[in-house]
Amino acid sequence: MDKNLCSNFLLVTTNFPDQLDNTGKYYFKDAANFKEYCTDDSCDGDLDKINAGCLYFFNAFFGSSELFQSVANSNINIVEYIMIWLSYMLNLKDNEPSFTNLEHFYKTYIDGSDKYKKSITNVKKYRNYKDLIDRKEYYLKMDNNIASKLYNSFKLLCEMYTAFNENTSNCTNCSEKANQFVKNYEELIKDPNININSSYSKVLCTLLADYYNFKNKCNGTSSLPTIDKTKINVQCSEQISEVASSSSSITNKLFIVLSIFGVIAFFLGISYKYSLFGFRKRAQKQYLREKIKNIKKKMAH
Hints:
By secondary structure, the protein is mainly alpha-helical. Helices cover about 65% and strands about 0% of the residues.
């Protein structure tokens, strides 16, 4: 997860709100970003709107090999976040079981549409968007209540990433959202329906790793709360260890580079000092020669 990725998610939620209007319908604030993903350039139906938003995500993150590497960073865990968003959006109409069914959406729009089956340019490991989704198929049976909790935690995390100022590494303005995230996350950990399901554990690990990655960006500032790792399974601990070791590796490399520059600067300083000293000695000798020459001229006269 990074700022660029989260900006795309927040762009969608800004132009396609994650809440219904006063009449209980889905609506676009700005349809321009989604028009190309609508059937016949029209998203009149609610499911058509949700499908357009879903396609926007996949195209923004995985539309080509360049996007796959630069935006998604070859990380298909982003698909988990897209599926959480999709499940959350479908569940806004919780009084319509056929509408909120993620498997129904999959059969109708994902499996039943060529747009999800179009090959990703110059990407051999994954055939298409449908292939990416199928690798995370366990989310098709996601519990509505759990999806809502996961989405809220994900959204908080994304808001923190977009608010982060990389120039200052100051995260004090994110502390409130960080506290909310940790509170939500710890409630998720306590949920027995999540702990017994390994599928949910995977996204919990992804969320946790992304949170600790954010803390590392903030130079590990103490203003951000920590999460009790003793309540987390081994797999999560390994992911956090990878984030920590990655941060440590970067820090060590930076220290080495700075040390090298320090040594170079030190020797350049000595070299400059001695060269300057040599220049001064030469200047003094030249001055003495000129003085002696002038004295000899006076004596000759």
